[in-house]
Amino acid sequence: MNSIRAVLFDLDGVLIDSMPYHERAWRQVLSEIGIEPPPLYIRLHEGEKAETTVRKLLREWNREANDDEVAALIKRKRELYCQTASHGLIPAARLIVEKLRAAGIHCSIVTGSVRANMNGVMTTEEIALFDPIISAEMCLHGKPHPEPYLKALGALQLPAHGCIVVENAPLGIQSAKAAGLKVVALTVTLPREHLAEADVILERHEALLDIIELKS
């Protein structure tokens, strides 16, 4: 893949070790209204807009909530997440991004999280490594809709064949594939059987350098 001009990274689980904290915050606020999602539910719905996830759960558990109640639940979850989440890029991810940038390859973030979540756990210096950054509030549709990745391609002014995506969840993979992109999936938060729609599945961040022919 030596013609790659940009790598589009998912954020949660790929660049930052955030999924345990997202999951814990979701389970805490949902338990307060009597909802206990199945073990992998949160991770399998990663990338989806928070409101979509909440409304699905409410329907599945035969619960009702008005718009204000849904918004309050999401706000509380985000506050809990920012209070507890670990900070900074995963060291292996940081190393890869630095190598990509040194080789003249653009690095972008396409995330289903809101920008405030990112700002709360990454430094200004870390955020500056990525351009563009496409976050949840910038899109009408979340993953698995292609809009987030199409928006990134538009900002980069690059064709899909000049980019690859790094994801860790099925909805993100579906979003990227629907936008015409090749996807490398990392088994960092889910077993590989949930990532089967990706073009390549890797166990380790470092193996990504071989995929784009930048030897570590």
Question: What does this molecule look like?
Answer:
By secondary structure, this protein is of the alpha/beta class. The protein folds into two domains: 6-17 and 87-211, HAD superfamily/HAD-like (Rossmann fold, 3-Layer(aba) Sandwich); 19-84, DNA polymerase, domain 1. The chain has ten helices and six strands, in the order E-H-H-H-H-H-E-H-H-E-H-E-H-E-E-H. It has a six-stranded parallel sheet. Helix 1 crosses helix 4. The longest helix has 18 residues, at 67-84. The chain is globular. The model has no long low-confidence stretch (mean pLDDT 94).
Summarize this entry quickly.
The chain is 43% helix and 11% strand. The chain has 216 residues and is an alpha/beta fold. The protein has two domains: 6-17 and 87-211, Rossmann fold; 19-84, DNA polymerase, domain 1 (Orthogonal Bundle).
SSE order, one letter for each helix or strand: EHHHHHEHHEHEHEEH
CATH class membership of the largest domain: Alpha Beta
What is the molecular shape? Answer: globular
The major sheet is characterized as: 6 strands, parallel
Determine the mean pLDDT.
Answer: 94
Overall number of domains: 2
| Straight-line distance between termini | 15 Å
Number of strands: 6
Number of helices: 10
Note the beta-strand portion: 5-15%
List its traits.
single chain; Rossmann fold; DNA polymerase, domain 1; 2 domains; 6-stranded parallel beta sheet; 43% helix; globular
List the helices and strands and how they pair.
Elements: E1 6-9, H1 19-31, H2 41-44, H3 50-60, H4 67-84, H5 91-102, E2 106-110, H6 115-121, H7 124-127, E3 133-134, H8 147-156, E4 163-167, H9 170-178, E5 182-186, E6 200-202, H10 208-211
Parallel strand pairs: 1-2, 1-4, 2-3, 4-5, 5-6
Helix pairs in contact: 1-4
